[in-house]
Amino acid sequence: MADMADRDVSAGTRTSTTEEEAADAVAETTREGADGDLHTERRAAVVFNPTKVELDVLKAAVASAETAAGWGPTIWLETAEDDPGIAMAKEAVEAGAVVALAAGGDGTVRAVAEGMRGSGVPLALLPAGTGNLLARNLELTLDHLEESVSTAFTGEDRELDLGMIRMRRADGQTEEAAFVVMAGIGLDAQLMSNTDDELKKKVGWLAYAQSMASALKGGRRIHMRTRLDEQKARNRSVHTMLIGNCGSLPGNILLLPDAAVDDGILDVVTLRPEGPLGWIQIFWKVLVENAILRRIESGVGTSLEGARGKVRAMGYQRARKVGVRLDEPEPIELDGDEFGEVVGFDVWVEPGGLLTRVPTGSSV
Predict the structure, then answer these.
(1) What PANTHER family would the database entry show (predicted)?
(2) Which domains are present in the chain?
(3) Cβ(157)–Cβ(357) below 8 Å
């Protein structure tokens, strides 16, 4: 992410950077009406990553929706190199924003969601970056900025689950973070750390093919001890473990077919292929059975569980809490961003922990 740029304050917008300015923003939401009474003016906030958005285009779209809705001037908060949006989201809430728009990649969305955790202020998603994972899983539009902005001002709110993780480093230090889509170790995290950022900007998620080929050659397994909910702890040797709040990845890949963003449950998948045949089984399961057969099932309203057989190289489980201890430090990723190496972690779900703005009448 780019270094923090100079802040600009223009008509109809404000870039708030300090607690004092945030307090001023709260004061500005109150106006004296013709009847002499004080009236609260609704305001939005935009947390944006300057490297992911065309700011002039975004400001024009927000200004139009803001005027149409009769709201006050929007608060503009730019992410920083050392903070992808957590502090900015908290600042938006403190400033009295009634909705916060996240404009950036998946990392920005994750950080803003973490900053707004339990605030009761809805998060609105604007298409940006290459993934847009949460927006894809909510089946929100990815092609029309104006429509997404309009939803932020006119849509309705939906409670989503929020994934939380406490990571333990080799030096004993711990770090807590949120995720909205999934957390992963193994091949998944290796892809994130090995993928060329410039190539990703040019070709999007196709850039992972190069690093995937490199990772598959290694075939290294991760030895761990896991515990799901109150079950007995067990030793595992896997290639990859993913813990998801959502099921779909870019390219319409349905990795976790039973995952739902509001069911209060986390879905866990482990990949443990034995050679090339194991990977073929996994690819068939994910690309064919999970996607095509599930669409047929939902279309005809009948069960195809018999057609979706178990794959030895792949395992599915569900839990509200997941504890993992590793034999050796391993890289971990949250919503596509690498978070360094860990020797263990605990994951849990906070049902309804995130309020999200969706189109009115949305059935998703």
Answers:
(1) SPHINGOSINE KINASE, SPHINGOSINE KINASE RELATED PROTEIN
(2) 13-154 (3.40.50.10330), 163-352 (2.60.200.40)
(3) yes
